[in-house]
Records
---
Amino acid sequence: MSNVSRPRVFVSRRLFPETLALLEQHAEIDVFDRSGSPSADELLARTRGCAGVVAQGTDRIDQAFLDALPELRIVANVAVGYNNIDVAAARARQVVVTNTPDVLNEACAALTWALILGVTRRLGEGERLLRSGRWEGFALELLLGMDLVGKTLGVIGMGRIGQSVAAKAAAFGMRVCYLRSPRRPDAQITAADGTPYEGLSLDELLTRADVVTLHVPLTTETRHLINQTTIRRMKPTAYLVNMARGPVVEEAAVVSALDDRRIAGAALDVYELEPVVHPGLLRFENALLAPHLGSATVETRTAMSTLAARNVVEVIEGRPPLTPIPGSWVG
Ligand code: 8YV
């Protein structure tokens, strides 16, 4: 079959073979096939003339990029977060923007619990001790952590992932409270059995929770939500978990809180300047640090990639996108 009239799609990172096969049935594809991500210049050059781009959270899609690509019809992010994309600029140019919601809820919630359990039970420290050959055998007081049973989990960002995290709290005997949305203060969020979770202000949540876990999108309102001032509201026995976006937390504030023992520990999956990590964080045994692994399971990353590819196929063939970002597409 001639390729002359087939739409072109740039894929900014290696994807799973089945995802590429799906795209290849409908488009002429060009895949960035090296490790790391394309530079801004290469992303632009290789998307030139394309109807679609399959992008990652690390690809900056801004006004200048969109202006340079008048043929572009869809940006399909392989991520639920889309703070890398200027959605208003895309909408103004009638470029559809899609993300990959829902398919990653369980993987992200599972990693959240892995971090909560890991940091409260000092698993990273334990493994480092054992591997270093310094473990001297069982000791009653060795690496004592904190029980979760009877404690309070404070969820900041009670969206799909936050609710999935909250739903698992009962299994560990934890109570759940969450940050009330300032936009919808009366909205009541309930567990699957209809029991309402307790909605609190930020100050109330931070002073009450034993584990504070972050699941908000990165916006101008949530940037540095946890900062030098707000972190002081946390209990000295409490743990901070960031599964949202790095800049939601001011890393320097976490470093000073850990330095002064104003919190018990922190577990982070995301960082302000990925892949750079604040060097201060690396000093603390009670900082559990993961390299942005929230959705990193074979099943979930495959589902995310396939959903992004299916969004591209729908749009380049003139059908509505499956999962448009709210406000990015008007049907
Ligand atoms: C992505 C994420 O895998 O979905 C998100 O928003 O943070 C991760 O699941 C990552 O952003 C790569 O695109």
Note: The longest strand covers residues 152-156.
---
Amino acid sequence: MTRRLTGFQPTGHLHLGNLIGAMRPLVGAQERPGTTHSIAMIADLHALTVEHDPTRLRANTLQVAAVLLAAGVDPRRTALIAQSQVPEHTELHYLLECATGYGEAARMIQFKEKSSAGGPVRLSLLTYPVLMGSDILVHDSDQVPVGDDQSQHLELARAIATRFNARYGDTFTVPEGIRPENAARIMDLADPARKMSKSTPSAAGRIGLLDPPETIRRVIARAVTDTAGVVRADPAGQPGVTNLLAILRACSDREPGELSSYGALKREVTDAVEALLAPIRARYAELAADPGHVGRILTEGAARVRPRAAATVRRTRAAIGLLD
Ligand code: AQP
């Protein structure tokens, strides 16, 4: 059985890119019982690496959990956890730091970009890829779905695991990065050169999973296209239209038919997105009415994964030379 870890940062509202790129593959894997054991992890500790508001972080963590449940994550088949409620993540993190070079962490592109943006830099921003390695390795994950921006961090996790195994004896499963089937990368509708992202300051090109229908309609109506006037997939020449076609394909689960104009394309995309999101919004409204229920699901998820995580930590402590 394959063990797969998918992480979501509670740094804002989940969007259509998160749904298509990560949440639907997670739900899809549930439909193939006996093949994949998935953990969906809300990475609340990662959200501490940049300036954050504690009240908002707590609310976002519960909201991300509720949206995942609303989108079909079934806690009986997928372990849904908050990263900080599994303390083995942080215990293993320190042990892995002792097997990681400063230079390895400092060369991470995301660290360089975020630390050079101005303002104070938290030490945890430097060490966060090692914590990500711990998240992966502590659960014996052998598959990690990663986008391009996380592939360097996954390589670091693989390097740490391989080095640790060679130096201290076989301790970790060395994970593979995967790109789930049909998990298209969704670009910002106002700037199709950039991926749709929670933390982009402008929401003009983002479709939030809880956005009301009028917002969805407006964002799609204003999506950047081009002057070619032909509806076809051409990533280099027509990135905006290509992105709209990718959204249509992903949301309707079929190849788009012939479309005569950008207006027709946008209408189809609006209908397909709305058909996908309306039931999620409705289920979310029910779940949000009972936050205690969502909190209990997270507590149960943590209890389920901790025995294996504790075994990994015990193995690591023994290998590295610590007392029982
Ligand atoms: N635009 C996207 N298209 C497809 N997949 C995407 N994912 C994120 N954006 C897109 C996938 O969603 C999962 C969770 O992502 P994350 O919360 O770890 O953060 P991220 O990848 O950094 O996504 P964001 O939304 O851009 O967050 P911020 O702005 O906080 O950095 C991952 O599997 C990711 O690949």
Note: Residues 6-9, 11-12, 17-18, 20-22, 145, 147, 185-186, 195-199 surround adenosine-5'-tetraphosphate (CB under 6 Å).
